[in-house]
Amino acid sequence: MQKIIFNIGLRLSVVVGLLFASTLVLAHDYPDEIGQCASVNHGKLGKAQRCIIATGFGTGASYMHLTFGQSEAYIGNPTDCPEYEAKGCAPTVGKSHEDANEGMYYHRDRQTGEIISGSDEGAWFCAKRKDNQLDVCYVYR
């Protein structure tokens, strides 16, 4: 009898523990990295500055937070999209998560700063808001 009660109690403890664990929201920050960032003004890539690239993910999206000079930028990426350019899968871009609006990705040549198609190794990875309120590029060192 005591063995039966112990087995039932053990099973109940495992079930309750699994239920509790399944209700936790997963969010994780990765270690910050150092890179170079530059703002784009009037279509021209500004001076590259040392920046801190903080990345992480939460429920439904990954994010990147760039800090350089007196500037900050936030880029959010939906994680449930097979392709970033698919409808409804555009990144969100802003000075913060709260300020972010729909944006788009593109690349610039590392040497000239000109827009390029595709992504050459070492190219600037850029994100801008569709309303052109923020346009920023970064590259990992």
What does this structure look like?
- Helices cover 15% and strands 45% of the residues.
- The chain is built from one helix and eleven strands, in the order αβββββββββββ.
- Strands 2-4-5-6-7-8-10-11 form an eight-stranded antiparallel barrel.
- The chain has 141 residues and is mainly beta.
- A hairpin with a 2-residue loop joins β5 and β6 (71-78).
- It is globular.
- The longest helix has 21 residues, at 2-22.
- The protein has one domain.
Main sheet summary: 8 strands, antiparallel, barrel
- Tell me the strand order in the biggest sheet: 2-4-5-6-7-8-10-11
**How are helices and strands ordered from N to C?**
HEEEEEEEEEEE
Helix/sheet category: mainly beta
Please state the overall shape, judged from the principal axes of the Cα atoms. globular
Q: Tell me, rounded to a whole number, the average pLDDT.
A: 82
How many domains in all? 1
In terms of DSSP E residues, the strand content is over 45%
How much is the radius of gyration in Å?
A: 22 Å
**Helical stretch count?**
1
Signal peptide: 1-27
Keywords: Signal
Organism: Acinetobacter marinus
Protein name: DUF333 domain-containing protein
